[in-house]
Amino acid sequence: MTKTSEVKRVPRQPVIAVLGHVDHGKSSLLDFIRKSNVVDGEAGGITQRISAYEVEHKIADGSTKPITFLDTPGHAAFQSMRERGVEIADIAILIVSAEDGVKPQTVEALNSIRLSGIPFIVAINKIDKPGANIEKTKQSLSENEVYIEGYGGDVPAVNLSAKTGEGVPELLDMIILVSEIADLQTDPEKLGEGIVVESNRDIKKGISATCILRDGSIKKGQFITSGTAQAPIRIMENYLGKQIPEAIAPQPLKIIGWDELPEVGQTFKIFADRDSARQAVEAEKLSKKNVSGHVELDKKVCEVIIPVVVKADTGSSLEAVIQEIAKQRTDKVCTEIISSGIGNISENDIRLANGSIKAIVIGFSVDTDAPAKSLAERNEIDVKNFDIIYKMSEWL
């Protein structure tokens, strides 16, 4: 790196991924932090999918430091999303219950953190519970080769209660300390780049995507591409849903007006003009065309192929559902996704399912339109809606 480009780089806030077992209080911790530290006391609700927001934490000298948080779901089916959460984070929080200690999902989360190579902090939660045993939990961590400070290692650990808030300020202090040691920086003059962490289709607004800037900045009037999807940057919102003219890494933001649904986990790039963005998309399309034809390799080994139409509420949910369906295959029976998308189950989905071999239609956290219900009944198409992914797995 040249001296000139070195001068442009400035300190930036950390991006934090919180990982751990689904029942160990991860969402409760994020909820407490959000309610206590978000400016104006408002932000989008924490949901069972990746979301992103900022908090302002007041440190000892009276100044405030911003922190960007990601919420990464706990269920095993969302493993790839959790890994992605770590990939785009600077620091991970491994949350462990003081009642239960390390569980298989904790180990999964730990493996994701270790693969990423980023620093992490252990948050021992539920210390307010009658069954809490902090020493036993620390021993459980040691047995899984997590050696915390004071127990033969250098991994920071904070005891806390997401319910009462005890220990939460200390956790945020620790995040700031670890981020300062990491010396995180960005170049505000560079055209931004980052990762799409969520995408969805809204009837009124069109296609939107939640993005995390990893470096550089974004301004209105520029253009964004992600894979083969692109958008002019006209409507850009911050985590509070307020329109902003520009953003600098690592702010979470929502960009509205894409021409197609960007893939969750895909990188994005910012371009100064439409022609440069269009060229990047055309190059991506050509690249995809060149590698197509290598997808359906082992259909011949399946005696029975069950066609499936899948609809989900968001891009990340859709990805997780498709992965879970793929797990159900056996040596003799395979599932084939013939169509997938975001939004309610429509008449068109039922028509797709009503082929020469009738498909089943699966919806995740979506509704079935009334005309689609009627058409499905007339054609005896099996339509199932789920809100919990393991219920879908059991049914399959």
Descriptive notes:
With 396 residues, this protein is α/β, with parallel strands linked by helices. Helices cover 30% and strands 30% of the residues. The chain is built from eleven helices and 21 strands. The chain has helices at residues 3-8, 26-37, 79-87, 104-116, 134-143, 168-182, 274-291, 315-327, 347-353, 370-379, 389-395; strands at 10-11, 15-20, 51-58, 64-71, 91-97, 120-125, 157-159, 185-186, 193-202, 206-215, 217-219, 223-226, 229-232, 235-237, 246-248, 252-256, 267-271, 304-312, 333-342, 360-364, 383-386. α3 runs parallel beside α4 (104-116). The radius of gyration is 23 Å and the shape is globular. The model is unreliable at 1-5, 39-50 and 292-298 (pLDDT under 50).
- Name the strands of the widest sheet in spatial order: 13-12-17-9-10-16-14
Computed Rg = 23 Å
Shape: globular
Please give the count of helices: 11
The counted number of beta strands is 21
Mean pLDDT: 84
Strand residues, percent: 25-35%
Distance between the termini: 53 Å
| Overall helicity | 25-40%
Biggest sheet record: 7 strands, antiparallel
Unreliable residue runs: 1-5, 39-50, 292-298
Helix and strand composition category: alpha/beta
